[in-house]
Amino acid sequence: MWFKNLQIYRLPAGWDIGLERLEAQLAKKPFHPCGSQDMESRGWLSPLGNEVLVHAVGGQWLVCLGFEHRLLPSAVVKQEADERAEELAEQQGYKLGRKQLKELREQITQELLPRAFTRRRRMYAWIDPVNGWLVIDAASQSKAEDMLEQLRHTLDSFPLTLLRTELSPMSAMADWLAGGEAPEGFTIDQDCELRSVSEDKAAVRYVRHPLEGDEVKGHLEAGKLPTRLALTFDDRVSFVLTEKLEIKRVDFLDIVRDQVDGDADDAEALFNAEFALMTGELVHLLPAVVRALGGELANMAVESQVDSSLAPAPSPAAVTADDPPF
Asked: What global pTM score does this model have?
């Protein structure tokens, strides 16, 4: 249980939902496979595969959102509709109109849906009720929104504060590169992306390349700003910080992973050990990132509290080939 990407959100200090209450509310919207006419289904799953929907270890919580999506490409529907339209045109002596073609495609979609293959995936969120963090393991903020929408629809109230810092990640990363020195506790690694703020949006990417030379400083002086920068914290966790305050490509180094007995036969014990180690590292990493960016800008934070009865219906979740199966 190691997160790969961190989309970071803030829970307010007054968020007083307890473990049992959270479990009871998630149980109202469990995951069910797609029905015969459903393109997608989503709901809460047990992170560990048992009956418990909120997995707790050492005061840290883990929840899991399951998705099932039917694979019915529009090209398949169109091909079948075109063939049937030709047959009907021959029988009737004239081509189908636009409205008839639309109705035919809808009919074919309903016929093919029950036979379409399905793809499943999971998305995890770590809740730190002590320090007020909500972290979603998702590659982008748009994908993380699937989790947030489901939480809004599930919980009686879900106040969420967006994390803001005094310094923007872009300006802070530019200062670190220009000065050739990372903030305390961090080291600058060898991956970086610099992008021009002008209309041409020219970009330079460095992969496994030293960043302390004059070349990078020249790009900064020419007006390019860093949008991604690889860093290591405390020689324990490597990651890429983005201009959107995302933490990507998280890699817990051997000094952390070696604390887990990889040969353990007890799958639950291994899962718990990894989760405890991961959250233990992140509890130190996240405040350090905030400090490196000048501290939290609490007075400018944007709060969004949504009543589940008023929330809009969730949009279909994007499914990519990289999404892990169940």
From this structure: 0.81
